[in-house]
Amino acid sequence: MSHLSIRSFLKKEKITIIFGLIIFFYILGVHLIFEIEKNKSIYISFLYLFLFFMYICFLYFESNRDYIEETYIINKRDYKKIFEMKASPLSKALYEEIKENKVYRDEEERKREDVKKYLTIWTHQIKSPIFALKLLLKKDEINRLDCEKEIFEIEEYVGNILGYVRMNVDSTDYVFGRHDLDIIIRSVIRKYSIQFIGKNNSVDFSETKKIILTDAKWFSFLLEQIISNSIKYTENGKISIYLRDNELVIEDNGIGIMPEDLPRIFDAGYTGYNGRLEKKSTGLGLNLTKNIGKSLRITLRCESEVNVGTRIYINLKNILS
Q1: What are φ and ψ of residue 174, in 5° steps?
Q2: Helical H runs in 34-88?
Q3: Could you read off the pLDDT of 204-229 as tens digits, one per residue?
C-alpha cells in the first residue's frame, strides 16, 4: 500500500514548519538575552521543540491516513465518493487530477462511440453495392459499365473509412507544397468520369489558374467527397466547377437540400432527407470534408434550394500562393 512521502508532506506543510522553528528560536533567544538561567532556557526551548515535533508527526499521520484512503478510492475508481470528500490540500489536488482524467476518459469514450457508430453505418451501407455487384455478375450478359460503377462505389466506401481512420490518429501524413489547383481538379474529374456518364451528367469546369499551398492528396480527397455528393444527387444535369472571389465553387442542378437539413449537412453521421431517400448516404463524407478543411486551413459553406440545386463554397483565401 502506498504512503505519503515525507518529502511531499514537508513541502505541503513548509509554512507551518518554518513558523514553528521561528517560534523556537524566538523563545530560546528571549531567555538568553534576558539572562534567564541557561539550563531552564534550554529546557523550555527544547520542550517546545519536542511538542512541536509531536504535533508535526500528528499532522503527518493524519495526512497519510487521508492519502491512503483517497488513493484507495482512486484505485477503486469510486469517483463520486472522492468528489464528496471534505476538501483538503491533498484531496483538492487529487480531485483536480481525477477530474482531468475523467474528462480525458469521457472524450475517449465519446470517440469510441463515434467510431462504433460510423462502423455500424458504414458496414450497413457497403452491403448495397456488394449485393448489386453479385446480382450483376449472375446475369448471362454482364454489363461491364454497371459492374465498374458498383466497384467504384465500394472503393468510395473503403476510401471514406480509411480517411476517417487517418483523421483520428494523433499524427496525419500531411505534406504541404505548392500545387496547381486546375491539375488537382482535372484529376478528380477524371476519377469520377464513369459516375458522370452513369448519371448522364455533364461537367462545366472553368480554369482557375491558381497555385495553392496545400497537401495535394488530402485536398483531392476533400474535392472527391464534394463532387461525389453532387453526382449522387444529380441526374441528367450539370455540375459546374469555377472560382469566385477566392472561393472554389462546386455547383449542381440536382435535387437540392431541405432547408431544415442545410445547417447540419457537415455533422457526423447526419444524412438528412436526401440521404434517407437515396439510402446510400453514410453521413461520413461531408463531415470528413469539414475536418480535413480545418487541417488544410480552409473553410466550407453551402447554399441550396430544393429542386434547383446546391453550391458548395471552398474558401481558398488562406492557401492561395
Answers
A1: -80, 130
A2: 38-76, 79-84
A3: 999 999 999 999 989 998 999 899 88
Cα–Cα distance, 150 to 130 (Å, whole number): 7
260 φ, ψ to 5°? -75, -20
The rounded mean pLDDT for the chain is 79
Assigned fold of 177-321: Heat Shock Protein 90 (3.30.565)
* Residue 171: DSSP 8-state: S
DSSP state, residue 77: T
315 by DSSP, 3-state: which? strand
- pLDDT (tens digit, 9 = 90+) per residue, 110-128? 777 777 777 777 777 788 7
Dihedral sign for Cα 15, 21, 23, 29, please: negative
181 neighbors 211 (Cβ within 8 angstroms): yes
Task: Please state, in angstroms and rounded to a whole number, the distance separating the CA atoms of residues 291 and 268.
Answer: 10
pLDDT computed for residue 276 by the predictor: 43
Sign of CA dihedral 24, 26, 31, 35: positive
| Max Cα distance, the chain (Å) | 121
d(CA 169, CA 238): 37
Neighbours of 149 (CB within 10 A): 19
Say if residues 262 and 304 touch (Cβ distance below 8 Å).
yes
List the domain boundaries for the chain: 6-103, 177-321
What pLDDT, on a 0 to 100 scale, did the predictor assign at position 83?
53
**Distance from C-alpha of 221 to C-alpha of 317, rounded to nearest angstrom:** 19
